[in-house]
TrEMBL record:
Keyword Iron assigned: yes
Protein name: Proline hydroxylase
Sequence ranges assigned to domain Fe2OG dioxygenase in this UniProt record: 135-248
GO molecular function, one term: oxidoreductase activity
Family: Belongs to the iron/ascorbate-dependent oxidoreductase family.
Length: 249
């Protein structure tokens, strides 16, 4: 008798995380992040991997906490934070994605006149987080059903916050759910806010600015403030996994 896939943790990546992540055109991704505050990484996960990760949601042993958004005014829906050790597939991607994003993050800080610089490897950055008392893992698995949404927010969990994070859509739009678009807003000084709706398919990832990013203007760089969220799910069930690179207090 075959055992349902949801009883297993996801299998290791068939293609190693470093090779999979390194295959993207990161120069183009950096330009997208600079220009719009986000960049799509198509097909980062296979459909089978997406289903396996989604299947973890009901298995409490993988998680350190469970959040019902409505209880905190975050919107409607729910999510669970993974505990350490992370599932291999997520830990591998978190480690592999970080070096490609840290150079972008350091360039942003330089342009915004911020002294903080991020180390080249994720282990060194996590060491800084833990020394600052931020020891709880932040990768999370989100679940939405009809009527659920995620208010515009920023994922900041302590003094140390890596300025870029990644979300991977695990469900297929139009088949598994309708609605539920990923939304990014950018508040610009003395200007109206700009909204970006990011189209994603199952397995696609979006890297996006968590808090601030620089924008080139006629008089040099200025700082904009970003928030992200998810529009109302109209039907079905939507799962997303979030990869946040800093840990929490």
């Amino acid at each position: 008798m075959n055992t349902p896939i949801s009883t297993f943790a996801p299998a290791p990546l068939e293609i190693p995380a470093a090779a999979r992540v390194g295959a993207y055109d990161w120069q183009t991704a950096a330009a997208e992040l600079d220009g719009f505050g986000c960049a799509v990484l198509p097909r980062l996960l296979t459909p089978e991997e997406c289903r396996a990760i989604s299947g973890l949601y009901s298995q409490e042993r993988h998680f350190r906490s469970h959040v019902i958004m409505a209880r905190h005014g975050f919107g409607k829906g729910e999510y669970r934070y993974f505990h350490y050790p992370l599932p291999e597939i997520l830990g591998g991607l978190r480690t592999a994605l970080y070096p490609h994003l840290s150079g972008i993050a350091n360039g942003w800080n330089e342009r915004m006149g911020t002294e903080e610089r991020y180390p080249e490897d994720h282990a060194s950055f996590l060491k800084q987080c833990h020394e600052a008392g931020q020891t709880r893992p932040t990768p999370l698995l989100l679940q939405y059903v009809p009527g659920d949404f995620n208010c515009l927010h920023q994922d900041l969990y302590g003094e140390l916050a890596f300025p870029i994070q990644v979300a991977i859509l695990l469900s297929e739009p139009g088949r598994d759910f309708t609605g539920g678009e990923f939304v990014l807003t950018e508040q610009r000084p003395r200007m109206q806010s700009r909204a970006e709706v990011v189209p994603l398919r199952q397995g696609d990832a979006v890297a996006f600015a968590v808090h601030n990013r620089p924008v080139r203007g006629t008089k040099g760089n200025y700082r904009v403030n970003l928030r992200h969220g998810v529009s109302r799910v109209r039907s079905g069930k939507r799962h997303t996994v979030g990869i946040i690179f800093h840990d929490a207090r």
